[in-house]
Amino acid sequence: MEKASELLPDDQQTQYGYALCLLETGSPQESDAVFRKAIEIAPYSELAEMCRTQRTTIAQQTMREKAGGDLRMDAVMYCLGALKKFKEIGPERTMGITTEIALLGRSGLNINDPDTTYTLKSLDGKFTGLQLVSYMYAGVKSIDPSQDVGIDLDKEYAAAFKLFKEGNSL
């Protein structure tokens, strides 16, 4: 598959197949780079969506591995910050920010690199990928708690929500 990907660098299906092979053989970081390449070939195709799904899975696994299976306290604090911000600005702006993050995320957010930052039009500042995903998660859950956000921050959000409720009851 590696040779095929070299011979057919603009064939999205070949790149996707190569990325899957890398993933299955224990090379998630290399696989992620090839999934990104496949997305660039045809960003709005069904195969690009499948690549995005795989990239999300890789990011989640890597995120959990870095925390040793425990809570990611940085994500807890990002979710708590988002809950406070969203209470302050109200549901309409919350939805706008959440939507903007979701659209930005379609191009991929690096949630495991704190040095990579992103900006939003609807919110001042620079944000890490994990911070944006945490904001998006908190935004979606504040609008519709039953909604599947597509990334597993359930434990982190629950801890943040508990802190948020305790802080608001004082």
What does this entry show, briefly?
The protein is mainly alpha-helical and 170 residues long. It is 68% helix and 4% strand. The chain folds into 2 domains: 2-66, Serine Threonine Protein Phosphatase 5, Tetratricopeptide repeat, CATH 1.25.40; 73-168, no CATH class.
Task: Name its key features.
170 residues; mainly alpha; Serine Threonine Protein Phosphatase 5, Tetratricopeptide repeat; 2 domains; 8 helices; 2 strands
What do these coordinates show?
The chain is mainly alpha-helical. The chain has two domains: 65 residues, Serine Threonine Protein Phosphatase 5, Tetratricopeptide repeat, CATH 1.25.40; 96 residues, no CATH class. A two-stranded antiparallel sheet has the order 1-2. α2 runs antiparallel to α3 and α6 packs across α7. It starts with a helix and ends with a helix. The mean pLDDT is 89.
